[in-house]
Amino acid sequence: MITDVFLSLLEVSISTGFIILSVFLFSSRINKKYTMKWKYLIWLILATRLMIPFNLNAFTWQYRFNIPDISIPNTTSNSLFKDGISFTLSLPVQKEQFNLLEMVSYIWFAGVIIIILIHVIGYWYYKITLLKECTLVVNKKYLEQVDLIAAQLKVNKNFKVMSNCNISSPMIIGLFHPVMVLPKRSYSEKESYFILKHELIHLKRNDIFYKLIMVLVQALHWYNPAVYLLKKEAFLDLELFCDEEVVKEADMASKKLYTEVLMSTLQKQLNRGSAISTQFNEGTVIMKKRFIQILNRREKKNGGVMCLGILLLTLLLGTLVSCTTKESSTSSVNNNDIQNAEQESESNIINEQDTQAENKINNNDSSTSKDDTLNDAQEIEEIVKGFSSAYFGKNAEVLPTYLSEAFGEEMEVYQGDTEAVSDITIKGLTDIQNKNIGDSCVVWIEFKQDSQADSYQYLTIELQKESTEWKIYFYGIEM
């Protein structure tokens, strides 16, 4: 489950990352031609896309990054000789499996949790510490100005207005119960107007949730440098858009006064704030960009078409990238491996078996037809192969499927080193094909414990027919 989510988000991260870098490279041109509202929306579209873990793969021409599972194989391949007819059987044995993709997925998930916890704990600590030092604003004139601007902007939210002597710039903090926190200092009426309007615009647009989305996107895609760029640029354009709204209908003198208010906050001692809050200060370089935007007299275009184009391009690129897992072909200890080995062997020898079995069946034996005898021989052969795979592969879960209900011995698997076993040969199958065996038969597995051994060992297997199926009712190793 985690691996599937990781791969889906990785697809989105790769495709959307190209869009983020492209928008960043053309930021200067976009800022000159279009209002900041559209850059603000572009980042929101890209961030939203990054949080949706699936692609609209409507096209078949995709580039696929097949990320295989990496296994540390530990299987033994032995040649079994059925009375001169050879076939290869891969014995499934216990192995250590190292799934690189699964490990990377869990590392990614751990990173997501850690980053989210850092932000959540940091936010709550900052908020609690800040509000402990705050006092309610009781200045009637100040509160009236807040109410007036809120009415002009049609801000319908309930919020508190508090002051704090340890901050240098105003801010809004609180996701569901917002609080406007103001520095304890005196402002002129015009200065306070710009400051309050700036923060109330943030409040009206739910910019705290906008920032929260960017933080979540950063957590989900913490491995992607483009996402850090997205967050940085989104936070900057958030402020530029807010500045644009503050001075939207202001004259040049008012715009200059607004920049002076920003400059005065920059000159104060800056405190480290939370990422999930709005704050009325930035670094020198960022503040310079804000001044340029505020004092810009150029008429700007509507960027709706550009915004729609970015959205369509994001969806289109998402169809070109696909990350899938590729199942390893290395065998593991399970039933499917045994079945695959049996089917593989059967497909290689079945035609040759048909020919030889037909030539060797005793034509004078009238009690059993050729087809019945051949079917018995084939069934016994497959049972012996499957049983030996489970026995030498130490697969105690599969072993009982080959045993008779009358099996009275303690079930055991091979106690030696499976990797060392060599020269495995099935003995007795030719006799089964050449005569009517009735309802019971005996075959042997001849093998060496290792390739250097001087003598063979024998695994005796006695079978009996129960209803329509052959089952093993005894097996054991003879020296």
TrEMBL record:
Pfam families: Peptidase_M56
UniProt keyword annotation of Transmembrane helix present: yes
Domain (Peptidase M56): residue spans on this chain: 8-293
Region called Disordered, residue ranges: 327-348
InterPro entries tied to this protein: Beta-lactam_resp_regulator, Peptidase_M56
Keywords linked to the UniProt accession: Membrane, Transmembrane, Transmembrane helix
Membrane-spanning segments: 6-26, 38-56, 106-126, 303-321
Protein name: M56 family metallopeptidase
Source organism per UniProt: Candidatus Galacturonatibacter soehngenii
